[in-house]
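This entry is retained here.
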Amino acid sequence: MAFDERRTHWDLKYEQGLPSLEKPDPFYLSAFDQFVAKLFPNGGPALDLAGGIGRHALWLAKRNWQVTVVDVSEVAIRKLDQKARQLNLTLDLFALDAKEYCFKPAVFDLIVMFYHFDRDICPKILSTLKPGGFLICKSSLSWDSYEGAAPVSIRPLERSEILSVLPGLQVIHHQERPVRDRGVVEYVGRKPSGIS
């Protein structure tokens, strides 16, 4: 799917409303509480890639994190901006394809990626994560053979593939399981201190 088609697809979905994407994912809440909260009690810079209408970004911003959100949907970014203003929260918002975002080295203490895993930008994600920083990720997984027409870079992950496409991160949590007609992978990785 071309960029314009992806943007139109997601703009329409967010215009219609996606109630399931309004509350933080239970895995996200559990992973944050278990692994991140104690080490970053005062927050820090965070990146929410494909952050949609901000279910994780708003939750982080309420806890003093300085959050950058990148999403392909202009509608989602507009809605997120309105919600952040209502809550008197400040977010850095970018209506961009994640590939177009300018990843600077060692900027973020936390990166959140939910249901958007682009293999092509993994090296950039790893470089923009600070030493000691965390990646919390949940993504679709091909549980059986994959039949779809998605480009290789964004088709569902294969089983255990996440471990090979994120080299250099210490695996803190990794679970893969079937969900309906596909699978899901839940992953928390940490960049070792001393590695930039």
Notes: Residues 141 and 159 are 7 Å apart (CA to CA). Residues 3-15+23-35+44-188 form a domain with the Rossmann fold fold (CATH 3.40.50.150). The two ends are 34 Å apart (CA to CA).
